[in-house]
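retry 2 of 3: previous attempt timed out while embedding zinc ion. Reduced batch size to 1 and resubmitted. Inputs unchanged:
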Amino acid sequence: MLQLCKECASRFEKDVFAIGECSICGGKVARFGELAERGALLVGGDWGSFSVSTTIPKGVLAAEEKAFDYSPGESIKTFANRYFSERVAAISERKYDPSGGDGRIMFDFRSFTARREAEPLFFFGRYKKLKEGLSQTKWDCGKCFGRGCERCAGEGRMYRSVEEIIGGPFVKRVGGAFCMHASGREDVDVVNTAGRPFVLEISNPEARKVDLEGARGEISLGGEVEVSDLKRVGRGAVELVADSHFPKTYRAWIEVAGGAGEGDLERIAGFSHMLKQQTPNRVVHRRADKIRERRAEVVRAEIADGMVVADILADAGTYIKELVSGDGGRTEPSFSSLLGKGCICKKLEVVEIEDDFLRLVLG
Ligand SMILES: [Zn+2]
Ligand SMILES: [Zn+2]
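retry 2 succeeded.
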């Protein structure tokens, strides 16, 4: 006759077990109340809901299988999750949400301990990069790989990043670690006044309520980055934003060999072509070398300071610097091939991103 504790015996439909030292749990189920209390203390102060999980050792599950030979019943795992969710909800006065909630309380049967894992936080927004010389995400120094060396002046990185300027003020408020997912990126030397959609992910936050207005103000203090349209979103926004590609309008400052004349301006202003663009020389070491077709059209152009300043509406993924220079024939047609003389993009700015689709979905 199998011997079980009375707590375990009560999970089985038939009254066929002797009550005594438990061959399944060794007496631990009788002390689940203590463990639930410890778990309830871990529920975050500003959590509205929580979920639970319980790890049960294989040996315990195997011992339970033997008892199932004598009677049907509720498994210890199902029992534990139900018990802990009910007790933690009662003690913490938070809602149990089996689909996740604001975080999870994880119970370990063997060590008889509880720990917590907060659900990540996600914030949608649009950022403007007002100064050159910032990378979008962390860019480790290629010589020391982040440890700090002479080349990077001990910083471990070559550029400050938009990601850290935005993420820092959030982590200061809620703890955890940040990671930015954006819809495309601009080069280090390119300014963006259009507002590029991004989702900031905060993993393992200690708190969940963020004063968004305060964070926004702090981000803009240095005059390098500004954010707008900040709002809390769900995990699904990451894929939506990171996988989206939008047509953009760029403003390019173009130096024409020998100086830009009215004829050059006229020809550039009329530019509207489907480009054949081979992966640029400057990125071919890290991207597949292939030819892509992209549409580009100049929507406005003028001469200023001896340069042609052109607003170019282009498909997502168009390389604008190469559209201007021709990249030694790798982009065709180009402004250089159009004019029959060398053109160089001296400065580039993203002035509009047509992300109406996101506005519909995320606001
Ligand atoms: Zn037991
Ligand atoms: Zn270094």
